[in-house]
Amino acid sequence: MKLQNMFKKTSRKAYITLREKPEVPHGLLRKCNKCGAGIMADDVKKGYYICPKCHGYFRIHAYRRVEMIADEGSFEEWDVGLSTSNPLDFRGYEEKVEMLQNKTNLEEAIVTGKIAIEGKPAVIGVCDGRFLMASMGEVVGEKIARAVERATEEKLPVIIFACSGGARMQEGIVSLMQMAKTSAALKRHSDAGQLYISVLTDPTTGGVTASFAMLGDIILAEPKALIGFAGPRVIEQTIGEKLPKGFQRSEFLLEHGFIDRIVEREEMKDILADILTLHQRCELPEKMEHAGTLIRERKKENESSEKTADEMEMMEESIELIEDAMELPKTVEMGAWERVQISRKKDRPVGADYIDNLFTNFIEFHGDRYFKDDKAIIGGVADFRGMPITVIAQAKGKNTKDNIERNFGMPSPEGYRKALRLMKQAEKFGRPVICFVDTPGAFCGLEAEERGQGEAIARNLFELSGLKVPVLSVVIGEGGSGGALAMAVADEVWMLENSIYSILSPEGFASILWKDSKRASEAAEVMKLTAADLKELGIIEQIIREPNEFTAATFGGVCNQLQQEIALFLGHYTTIDEKKLVEKRYSRFRNI
Amino acid sequence: MINKVLIANRGEIAVRIIRACREMGIETVAVYSEADKEALHTQLADEAICIGPAPSTESYLSMERIVSATMVSGADAIHPGFGFLSENSKFAELCEQCNITFIGPSAEIIRSMGNKSQARNTMIAAGVPVIPGSTDPIYDAETGAKIAAEIGYPVIVKAALGGGGKGMRVAETPEEFESSFNTAQKETQAAFGDNTMYIEHFVQHPRHIEFQILADQYGNVIHLGERDCSVQRNHQKMIEESPSMALTPELREKMGQAAVKAASAAHYTNAGTIEFLLEKSGNFYFMEMNTRIQVEHPVTEWVTGIDLIKEQIRIASGRKLSYTQDDVQITGHAMECRINAENPSKNFRPSPGTITDMYLPGGKGVRIDSAIYSGYTVPPYYDSMLAKLIVHAKNRSEAITKMRSALGEVIIEGIDTNVDYQYEILNHPKFISGDIDIEFINSLSGE
Q1: Whether A27 contacts chain B with CB within 8 A
Q2: CATH assignment of B141-201?
Q3: Which of A16, A556, B190, B273 could serve as B290's disulfide partner, Cβ 3.0–4.6 Å?
């Protein structure tokens, strides 16, 4: 039965009412300009200016942003009172600026100053889109330049929240010059070894993208922010084509290697605080210094004193005891081919497992800043017993889906370029670099050649050889050829007991020399690719013992071992003068 | 006085409110989700506004949309019914800010009564009995035993961080206390990594007795007698009746006064309910206050002759209570059975679908509050209650016979219902004897 329009309506009694008609007070309810839903303004204000319905981000006023990032009461504003000289004598410009000043209570399109983030001081600049779309006129450029200069002088990191339409048309060529001015100031800041974090928010375009916004040591972005040089409409008109969905959004830039990380607004303060912590120049933690002394003493002892047979026996006994405690098996006799197969086992811990278990506070950074983010290499900064470290790992996946995404751990040129970028960053900030090598080889494909796979690997060998910070490489699975070496021009190279490191895969070796890839097992035996072989050849310094069944479940012992050894490594190498360090690394390879 | 009410609810309660408004000459606005286009409340109201898709978070729980619908329709008041936004202080506050009359108590009262510890403290201050318990954390059995003696046995030892029944032990006597405490503490330590304990009087086999309250804006508070809601399954009430077999006139007087005291202490306005746990000994304890109309309100309406929804609207319009405590006389016995679209043999699994045919009983002393009709499709998104069957008779045994007879006439085809299950309860000797507590339904599953 349908009931439509079948019931009689209420016979209305008109009551006299003295109350005023209901009305929604101004500003109580708002409409989300993204999803169109009605939302309570208060929820938005208390919720980081994010739509509670569609999770879209609203643009934020500069001072609100400062409040969201800075410790309460820590903000000290700099360089107030600068005003534009209207260099083109553009008609109506001064009036427009004045009108905006009155309307927004802002002096100009950027607010600069000093803040503390969880106690750590930083210089901040925040663009405000309400002011001529935060276009960069002389005042904006000047305020940024001054803030950066002062930061360089006071040895403070700089954080700039960019949001801009680009250059300010009303100021013509003078506006264009601000791009050079801000970039130049940032160059000096960088040369002074200081940190600059750029945070891109919606929208960051034009001359701002082409200057200070893209120059961060670390570039963060808010989700779904429009970031680009030319505006999408201009591009569409020029090429006469419709642009794909998501073009020029943060996610698009992340994929294309131009930003390090997308950070949700709720987490921005925490992430910034973590990054600042990991960039504080810290003295070598005591424990590691102690470890360094120990290792030196131990070496001296070994060299100088001749041990009696009793002493040797005692030492061996104590080593056994340690091994028992770590639940490590006795060294097992095993064929090379068997070890090759173990090194490729699917349940073997991968790069990401080492990062998770050996370090804390790992912050991953993405992209090569040229073309793409290669998921076959994971890299970033992390904390190792109080010491900031740059960690880079060749990343195999844990399952087929993961492996497809990570290209089975075979890096492309952009992966090596990302690694190099992070290594250079480590050098700038004086952080040791730890690499985990696990690749069947560099990716062999059309696109890889197009973008210069050979050049990318060569560049890494070239730069790594002279990197002014300690570099440690640990081969954890397969160390396949040049693709592995590109991350192993190190002060020391260690290998897991059942990992391999070779000129080529045994299959490739057999196929080149004997025209039969099926003779791979035979090849493995003659190639000298096991850890023990390579130790003997003097190619590597140390073998890390493995349990019989090496999986995530039995990972603990290896981690403990690695942690101790890494501490010793850092304790020793961080005390070496950088010239000597580079010299030592040079001779390490020179002598082979 | 209110001229137009928007009903921010669905189902039978929306229909119930629309009917009260119609009788008072107040225009009604229904709001409905896309799944409720054909619903009775949508059709019965003078106007209906669609407020969004089926999921209640995007429709019946969307404050912004409901307020917008109120503005569009020109309604001057909102009745929230029960469930959904009825006890949401933020919604009540939003109505206050928009000058919409919220038919219920103020946002402030909803907030304070919704906060368990605040409500408990208010009641302690007003001298309303609450379940006695320790105020400070307890770490050892010796201190615990002293406090347990003050509280009175039996006691229950609970983990301060408790949950899921872990770290809970009952001690019937002082002799048992030490071992109960230690066992509970060990479990607590294991489960939560903490050994902070809390001791509370253990309320044994209580009845759920609640008192209906009406309060106006001028400080007049009356109670409309009790409802016995002890027949419940997993805290879901199934049958409610008034008066309760467990209350002597003296106890009713005492509990009624406590309820009035509780409501006054909360500065309560509009209709509300004070829930008590009643022990066999006659000791009763405040549990919580419901700051809205309840599902089982018709039971009270029938024994008192007072239309609670109309009274709610009058109070919200700023009128004084139409009744004094002396006007309230309990006549006869009323009983309500909730009829749900669910399958009792499949662990009460909800059973949405189309009602192909139906017949509902009538006659003297039989009332049906429902929102279903032949051809109506019960949507899967909301509560499964289809109808409430309420009977009124001279006394309890006649009410039971009448309910049995009426239940026997209920025919709902096309979907599963709990009618037969209710019928069985009505025939259960223990229910007939009236000697039941809140464990009654659970004890049946063992039979």
Answers
A1: no
A2: 3.30.1490.20
A3: B273
